[in-house]
Here is the input.
Amino acid sequence: MARGWHSIAVTVAAGTVIVLALLCIWRLLQPLTQGAAIAPLLLAVPVFLGTRSVQAARRRAWGKAAIRPASPLAALLTGRIGATVAAAGVTVVAVPLTAAEVALARPAELWLLAALVPLAGLAQAMLAHRLGRHLHRPWADPLADRLALALVGGVFVGLHVWLDWFTATLPGYLQLPFAPAMQQAMAAVPGPAGPVTAALQATQAGDAARMWLLLHLGSDSPFAALRPLVVLLHLAMSALAVLSVVQVAISVRQSCEDLLVDGTEAA
Amino acid sequence: MTGTQPKPARRPSRLFAITFWSTIAVLALVSLGLSAVVALRGPAGLDDLARDIGLKPAIYRPAPTELERLFQQAGDMAATEVQGLMAAQLDAAFAVAHAAVPNYADFHYSVLGEYTELAGAVLGQVEGELHRRLFGDLDTRLAEAAARVDAAYAQAFASALERKTAELLAATPVQDELDAAMVALLGKAPARMTVTAPIGATAALLGGTAAVKVMTGVMAKKIASKVAIKAAAKGTAKSAGLLGGSGAGAAIGSAVGPVGTVAGAVIGAGIAWFATDAVVVNLDEYFNRADFEAELHAMIDDQRDLILRDWTAALQARPAELMQDVALKDLFAPAPPPQP
Here is the structure.
C-alpha cells in the first residue's frame, strides 16, 4: 500500500511541477520572445503521450475482447491509430487554449489555475485507484479521467465564474466602436511581432468581442434580447479554458505514471 | 485480478531516472528564477535580462495608448471648437436673467420685498423668490443649451477624430504585423463606425434644474447676508421712530380715554414702523440701487462663468472618461433612477 500511495504522490508532484513550471516560463517569457512558445510545445508532448496511453489501452482492451486472436483483424485493429488521433485532437485543443488562458489571464486567475493543476492530477489518480478495485485498468483510467474532468472542472469553472464576476473589469476602450475597440484589444497583447503574438491577439480579440457585445447589448439596445446568448457564450468559453487546464494536468500526470510506474495490475 | 492497489512504482533505469528528475529540477529552477526576477525587479527586470542575452530588438511592449492619444487630441480639438458656442449659448440662456435684474431690484427695494427677503433669510428660503423673479425658466434654457453643446461636441469630436485618424494612418509606415493590423482595422472600418464616438457613454453636461439650484443657492446666500446687514443697520433708526410714533399715537388716542391711549400708541408705533421702513428703503434705493443691480449682474456673470468652466472641464475629461474600465458585475446592475 505504502508503495502505491507513494507512486500517486510522486506522479502528482512530478506532473504538477512539469505543468506549472512550463506554464510559468511561457507566461513570463512570452512578452519577450516568440521562442517562449517552446514551453507549451514541450508541454504538448506529455499531454499527447498521457492521453494516448489511456486511449490506446482502452481500445486495445476492446479489441482483445471483440476480435478473435486468430483473426488477421487483430493485427490491424490495434487501436493505435484511433488513440493517436484522439490524443492529437485533445492536445491540439487543450494545449493552445491553456497557453492562451495563461498568457492573457489576470493574476488572480493564475492563482486559481495554479491550485487547479495539483488537484486535478490528484483527483484523477485517486479516482483511478478507487475505480481500479472494480474495473480493469483500461476502463478504470479513462473513466477516472472523465470523472476528474467533470468534478474538478465543475468546481473550478464555478470558482472561475465567481472570480470573473467579482474581479473582472472591462477595459474602457470597449466603449469605442467595434473596429477600434478590437484594435485596442489586440494592441494590449504584449510580445514581439510574429505568429505566436498574432495567435494570442486573435484570442484576445475573441474575448474582447464577447465583452464588447456584453457592454453594448444593454437594455436600451435594439438587440438586447441577444444578451443572454452572449452571457452563455462567455460562460462556455470560460468553462472551456478551465477544462483545458484540467485536461492538461490530468494527461501530464498520466504520462508521468506511464514513465515512472509499472504498467502491470497489482494482484 | 482485483486491482485494489495502485500500480507499484516501476524501478526505472538509473539513467532514465536521473534524466527525468534532472529535467524537472531544471524546469522548476528556471521558473522559480524567472519568478524571482519579476518579484524583485518587476517585469522591467525581465526586459534587462532579455537585453543581456540579446533579445532586446525583438521586445515589443504594447503601446495601446496610440488611439487613446488620438481620442484625447480629438477631444481637446472638439472642446476648443465648441468653446465659442458654449459661451454664446450660456449668454443667451442668462440674458433673460440679466433682463430681470431691474424687476428684482424693484421687488428688493420695496417694503414687501424687504420683509419677504428678511423672512426668507430667517427661514433660509431666499432661493424661491430669487428663482421665480430672476431665473424663471432658466433651468429649461440651460438644459437646452447643454443639449445643443453636447450635440455640437459629438459632431466636432467625430470630425476631429476622423482627421486625426487619417493623419495617423498617413504618418504610420507599415513596419510590422501590429502596424499592419492597425492600418487594416482603422482603414477598413466604415468611416461612421470609426469616428462615431459613443458620447452617450459619458455623463451629460450639468444643465437644467440641478445647475440652477446650485446657482440660486449661492446667490441667495449672498443676498440674505446683505438683507440681514441692512436690517441690523435700520435697527437704531427704527427704535427712535418707534418711540416717536408711539408717543404721538398715545397722545392722540388719550382724547378718548385710557383704552384710546393704548390703541393710539400701538397704531402710532405701527405707522411709524412701516413709515420708517418706507423711508429707509427709498433712501437705500436712491443711494444703492445701481450698485445692487451691478452686483446682481456680476453674480449672474460669475455663475455663468462657473458653468462655462464646469462644462469645459467636463468636455475635456470625456476622452479619458471614455477609456475608464468597467467592472463586469456593474454591467448587470439595475439602471439608476433618472436624475431630476
Q: What stands out?
A: The two ends of chain B are 79 Å apart (CA to CA). Confidence is low (pLDDT under 50) at residues 57-64, 174-178, 184-202 of chain B.
